[in-house]
Hints:
The complex is a heterodimer.
Chain A: H1 11-50, H2 68-75, H3 77-109, H4 116-128, H5 131-142, H6 148-155, H7 169-197, H8 201-209, H9 214-241, H10 245-251, H11 263-271, H12 280-308, H13 311-322
Helix pairs in contact in A: 1-12, 2-12, 3-7, 3-9, 4-7, 5-10, 7-9, 9-12, 9-13, 11-12
Chain B: H1 2-33, H2 38-43, H3 56-63, H4 67-98, H5 104-113, H6 123-132, H7 139-147, H8 152-163, H9 167-175, H10 180-191, H11 193-209, H12 212-217, H13 227-237, H14 242-276
Helix pairs in contact in B: 1-14, 3-14, 4-7, 4-8, 4-11, 4-13, 9-10, 11-14, 13-14
Amino acid sequence: MTTPTRAPAEPSARLKRETVRYMWAYLFILPQLVFFIVFTIYPIIMSYVYSFFEWSGFGPLSDFVRFDNFVRLVKDDKFWNAFGNSLVFMAVKIVILMPTTLLMALVLNHAFFKGKVFYRTVFFLPVVATTSIVGIIMKFIFGNDQALVNEVLKALGLISDPIPWLGQSGTAMGVLIVVGSWKFFGMMMVYWLAGLQSLPGDVYEAAKVDGAGYWQTLRSVTLPLLVPVGSVILLLTVVNSMNVFDLVKTLTDGGPFFATETVDLYIYNYAFSTSGFPQIGYASAAGIVFGLTIFVITLLLGWLGRRTGNSRQSRTAKQAMGGM
Amino acid sequence: MAARFSVRSAALHLVLIVLGIVWIYPFVWMIFSSLKTNTEFIVSGFKLLPEHAQWDNYARAWKTGNFSAYFSNSVIITCTTVAIVVIMCALTGYALGRVKFPGYKLFVLAITATMFIPKGYTIIPIYQIIKHLGLLNTMAGIIVAESSGAHVLFILLYMTYFQNLPKELEEASEMDGCGFLRTFFRIMLPLAKPIIATTAIMQFIWTWNSFFVPLIFSLNKPELRTLAVGMYAFVGEHTVDWSGMAAGASIAVVPVVLVFIVFQRFFIEGISGSVKG
């Protein structure tokens, strides 16, 4: 009994088999569905609901304040400061990482180059190291006058006096961005490598036949073909850059004087801070405003990615988006 | 031609090795610092080797620093979360990959649509739910919160894998009298070992490294701290025990790095899957 000729003679048995299979399928997705509804859908809805209330998280939701939380938020300079910090962190990190990680992937992917797995492992290591602990280690590496970075720079003759890296606003943000980029570099490198390996081989054959050299092939074949994958990578990096909490909390804790406070830290401080009364409604409003901003950014990027790809490549991009 | 390539690649190797050393130097520094005395830690500048290896730092972090408790919390939370997530995603992926049930499309659409909503921004309601379930300040609460989320990548990995298995497998198993459930557990799931490995390793590394969720859920109950959170608390409480701090950091980071190095093939495959689909 092979598939195409199966059981047209007994439709009721087949129907019964299908029904049984449906029942099992529903049973199989049930745990995930429950988790999804309870811990994803419901929280999304509730964070909107909370944002219209003045609420400390204890007792009933009774103090409906309409748009007061949002009004207060928009008027709060500290929120816009955090908002700006988050965007600066994201933008600079992307500008640093997009070209450098692509370059590294191209080098490692080169057919004549040996030791790909070794280098990939080395440059990937920061990705798997616990972020909060990386933050603490980096605090000691940059943190004081005798810290490693200052000692090295002094030994190299680049500076004569130690720099208080985490003590002044500009350098603290700089350290945060450098460490954040270092931490995520390996991830993007692997994304690019995956993208490079999924490129169609026949195009390269054709380029070879046409007598194109490495650089020419890179410029007119590889890079254009990578655009759709690149837009997916950009999207993933944007989403990743919103979650700086672990690093900011442990490395600078938002300091000095809120110079590195990002939106997720701002929200944490209102919702969970042990000093003072938690302001759940207000924190939710902040989460919504920032979340919507990011949503708009990802939509724009997705739209841009779809526009730049041709039909075949945009199919790859769509698959890639679906595959996240 | 060949000679030019070898000179060029030798130069490249040199650049990459120097860069690679700088790259992982923070970890090397951490491990060597964990063997120094506290005085050495401050005055030794960038001298790496300690006078005598101070293994005592580890004993101090383990006992006085509570790292033994943190370590066992990390192990319990991580392993349970991995088991829950892997089973849940395998079940979901199998149903989606093998049965086109009514509502199938809607389900896939719904989980992929919420993919871009970061966890940190829905944590407040999640915290309230855990509270209402009576799981606040319990290990179970942390595990449930860690297992939450839509696991889009994992589900799609299982879905594609099960989709591509031949239909005859299932039919042969049914002819042998196995039902849906038995076919899944006896025939299909064992075939999905590579995906099980990928998802388990990825979830292991994520949960082990998780900081935000265990931090929030152990704010009022320090006994529930994991290594990532315990380390943060340790730095706050023992401000001058730098080498103890380095020892604690090593205890937390070395296991996860080893797990990655041993199983990296699976991990990299999973990551690549997120761009390739």
